[in-house]
Automatic annotation (TrEMBL):
Belongs to the MHC class II family. The keyword Membrane applies. PANTHER family: HLA CLASS II HISTOCOMPATIBILITY ANTIGEN, DR ALPHA CHAIN, MHC CLASS II-RELATED. One of its GO terms (cellular component) is MHC class II protein complex. The chain crosses the membrane at residues 211-233. One of its GO terms (biological process) is antigen processing and presentation. This is Ig-like domain-containing protein. Keywords: Glycoprotein, Immunoglobulin domain, Membrane, Signal, Transmembrane, Transmembrane helix. Residues 1-17 form the signal peptide. Coiled coil: none annotated. The keyword Signal applies. It comes from Amphiprion ocellaris (Clown anemonefish). Residues 107-195 form the Ig-like domain.
């Protein structure tokens, strides 16, 4: 199988304005398609990525130390240098061993909702694919077997500590009884697509009809009335 991606990790240390120290590093993802991805990881959390179209680093978390925010412009300049470096590294790697097999890790997937499912109430379905490599993965949502594209949003890839990736796809929807939603995950390391389904759980209904309840309550009241009458009858003097 042809080599399609190489992940390069360059780590540097940094001290924050507080007394505690932090670690940040760049993760370069180089692809045969000439695409290059650069993420900045701060204390094991992806805090920014390079947007080469906008020519800037895009922050992915709202709260960051001031020193990291000031470093944003310099970080993009560093990210730009990775483009040529990635291309030359790919050429060298393929020339050294053109038949080298690429690492393959098949994903696991799970489907869950943001809120407890309730009919006619807007909700969000999450489809999580984790522990996969290389990072290319495809999500497909269906409703009752028909593909759904409206309300679908795919979050960015995230790096895991073991070098694999995880990603989430979301679907905004309104549950209806009888509807079945599915999330299909396709990845080159999987022998077949992974499909997870979700449907609204039917609430348990009482097996006793209202008429039966009325009859039982009436019977109990009748028996209580008879019992009370017998009690007072026995209390009367002879």
């Amino acid at each position: 199988m042809a080599l399609s991606a190489i992940i390069l990790l360059i780590s540097t240390g940094a001290a924050s304005a507080t007394t505690s120290s932090h670690q940040f590093h760049y993760i370069y993802s180089c692809y045969e398609s000439n695409d290059v991805r650069v993420d900045v990881v701060f204390d094991d959390v992806v805090v920014a990525y390079a947007d080469f179209n906008k020519e800037e680093m895009v922050m992915t978390v709202p709260e960051l130390p001031k020193s990291i925010k000031e470093w944003k412009k310099r970080a993009y300049e560093i990210a730009k240098t990775s483009i040529a470096h990635c291309h030359s590294t790919l050429i060298t790697a393929k020339g050294a061993d053109p038949g080298s097999p690429m690492r393959q890790e098949a994903p696991d997937s799970f489907v869950y909702t943001r809120y407890e499912g309730e009919e006619n109430v807007v909700n969000t379905l999450y489809c999580l694919a984790k522990h996969f490599y290389p990072p290319t993965i495809i999500f497909t949502w269906t409703k009752n077997g028909v593909e759904v594209t409206e309300g679908v949003f795919n979050l960015r890839y995230q790096h895991s500590a073991d070098g694999t990736f995880h990603r989430i796809s979301t679907l905004t929807f309104t549950p209806q009884e009888g509807d079945v939603y599915s999330c299909k995950v396709e990845h080159q390391a999987s022998q077949q697509p992974l499909t997870r389904t979700w449907e609204l759980k039917e609430k348990k209904r009482s097996s006793v009809s209202p008429a039966a309840v009325f009859f039982i309550v009436s019977l109990i009241l009748c028996l209580m009335g008879i019992g009370t009458g017998v009690f007072f009858f026995n209390k009367q003097p002879n």
